[in-house]
Amino acid sequence: MENKNIFFAMIITCVVALIDSLYLLYVHYFPLVPDAPLFALCTAGTMFDCNAVNTSAYAVLFGLPLSAWGLAFYIFFITILMVYYTYSRHFIIEFSMLWLTLFAVLLSVVLGFITFSKIKKFCSFCMILWLCNGMLLVLVCVHISRLYNGLKSAVNTIHDFDVIALIKDSHVQKIIFILSIAGIISLGLGYGLDASLKYAYNQKEKERQAKLIEEFKKDYEQYEKVSITVDDIEPFAGAKENPVHIVVFFDFNCGACHRAIGLLNELALKYEGSVALYLRHFPLDGTCNKFIEHTKDGASCHASLVACALYGEKEYHEYIMQLMTHRGRVDDDVIKEVVTGLKKNYTQLEAKANTPHVNKLLQNDIAVGGKLGIHATPTIIINNTKLRPGIPPAYILEMAIKIEMVKKM
Predict the structure, then answer these.
(1) Are 191 and 230 in the same domain?
(2) Rg of the Cα atoms in the chain
(3) Most buried residue, 22, 347, 361, 405, by most Cβ within 10 Å?
(4) What total number of domains does the chain contain?
(5) Domain enclosing residue 155, as ranges
(6) CA angle, corner 233, sides to 232 and 234, nearest 5?
(7) In this structure, is residue 268 part of a structural domain?
């Protein structure tokens, strides 16, 4: 290069970005804990949360974490620099660096917009990468500008060359071959590092799950045993004659309930001939629930009353699942939108929801929950064994189902 300082600046920038990408890949599989050395840097202020950003759905592209793509990119870019400095200073490499860094900066802008508008959190280490990308673009532009006496002159050079002649040039063919191999190897290294960390994560997760399962087996028989009947209600999923009965007390505005019902519904389908899932409404809303003193806005009560009004109709299941998959608070507008989408007359359904019969259905569920001392949702009961409030991992629920299935044999 004409200016070795620029070359070394690029190398250093790439190495910093490479280390940063490797760290972000690690965080993708092993989120930072409060006592981690760099936890404070990742959670500086309310707007920063590296874990939230790196474990979000936006952190993966084509099945590979963005940090792994970053690793491959910076390895490839370092390779390009080495080829350029030691083998050939052909202009095709110079402009390859320009387009690559320009792409990296544009991608940084897009990712910055996503973190701001979608995730609503920032990752300090991601921002370091964005700065590195910007610095690389500036360094490449400065280098090319010096070589061609300005960027405008450099752009004109692109227009002047003969593409056919360039492709036929044996030297250019060698460069393209070398860079292609370098690209494949870089991508392979990115995949390899990702696979290694994924394997380490899976092994650690298996060990953790095995430990939890053993603890759960010991604790399960010590869980509170309760007497609960399901004779008055029909299964939400599965058949009534199935040996394992799962009853869940839920609230429409409980985020954990949304996940729990989705998971339990999947398990009921998976163990179709063994599990029957029953739902009991238990709004954590003092408007209709005498066992709850706080929260009296009526939203959860309204959602449950409308559900009870639909009880026995084919739309009942779909109504609940739509509200359970709704992102955000379930209020009157959301209820009306879902009911209308189900092609039901909202006015008539509202009138039915306010009848003594429907209110009695809801109060019956609440009374059952109150008698059992329910105070939080979701509360899950499997064949009269009351689990702790909250949502256990899927494998724990499956273990409980299998334990109960063995008992019924």
Answers:
(1) no
(2) 30
(3) 361
(4) 2
(5) 4-202
(6) 140
(7) yes
Say whether pTM exceeds 0.70.
Answer: no
The answer to whether the bond into 389 is cis (omega within 30° of 0) is no
Please report the DSSP string for 330-395 in residue order.
--HHHHHHHHHHTT--HHHHHHHHTSHHHHHHHHHHHHHHHHTT--SS-EEEETTEEPPSS---HH
Per-residue tokens: 42: 């990742």
Can you give the pLDDT of all 409 residues of the chain as single tens digits? 456 789 899 999 999 999 999 999 998 888 876 666 777 677 766 788 888 888 888 889 998 999 999 999 999 999 999 998 888 777 788 888 999 999 999 999 999 999 888 888 888 899 999 999 999 999 999 988 888 887 777 767 665 666 666 677 788 888 889 889 999 999 999 999 999 999 999 999 889 877 877 787 778 878 889 999 899 999 999 999 999 999 999 999 998 999 999 999 999 999 989 999 999 999 999 999 999 887 778 899 999 999 999 999 999 999 999 999 988 889 999 999 999 999 999 999 999 999 999 999 999 999 999 999 998 999 999 999 998 888 888 888 888 898 888 887 6
Backbone angles phi, psi at 341, to 5 degrees: -65, -25
- Residue 315 has a CB neighbour count (10 Å cut-off) of 17
237 and 336 belong to one structural domain: yes
d(CA 46, CA 49): 8
Separation CA 68–CA 235 (nearest Å): 46
Q: Is 212 within a domain?
A: no
